[in-house]
C-alpha cells in the first residue's frame, strides 16, 4: 500500500524497479519504506499547526519514521501497524499522521527503511531522467503534474549513465536551491516545460 500526498508525483514503475533490485522477490516480511526522518523533536510551539504539548507526548524525540509525503507499507506491516493504532490511547492533540504511523510502527516492531528515491524537503528540479528514477517527488504544482507524468512515462528510458548523471545533478540543484534556468539557460528550460 502506498500513502501519497496530493502534491507528490508518485512513480510506481520506479518503486517496482527499486524493490526488484533491492529485495529478494520471494522475501516475506514487513516493509515500511520511504524517506526516513531521524531524531525529530516534537514541535512545542503553541502557534504551530504541528504543536504537540509535552503532556500529549513527553519524550524529547520521536522514534524514526517515514515522511508523510509518501511511504509504502507491505500487507503484513500495514496489518501490524493498524492493530497497534487501534490499541493505542489517543491523546489530544494527535501527532502529525506520519509521526503517528511511526509511533505505531515502533509499537508493532516494524522498522522504517530509508530509500533515497523518495524526495523530501527541497523541491527536486525537473529532469526527465531524474524523475524516471525517483519514486516520489514532493512539491509538484497540479499544472505541472500531468506534464511531468506524461514526459516521464511516454519518452524513451534513460541510459544507465544518463540516469546516474541526472540523479546527481538533481540532488545538487535541490540542495543548493538553484532553479533550472540558472544551470541550463532560461530559454532551454522554458522549452522543456511546454506541453
TrEMBL record:
Transmembrane segments: none annotated. InterPro entries: Glyco_trans_31 (IPR002659). The keyword Glycosyltransferase applies. Its EC number is 2.4.1.-. It holds the Pfam family Galactosyl_T. GO terms for molecular function: hexosyltransferase activity. GO terms for cellular component: Golgi membrane. It is found in: Golgi apparatus membrane. It is a single-pass type II membrane protein. GO terms for biological process: protein O-linked glycosylation. This is Hexosyltransferase. It comes from Etheostoma spectabile (orangethroat darter).
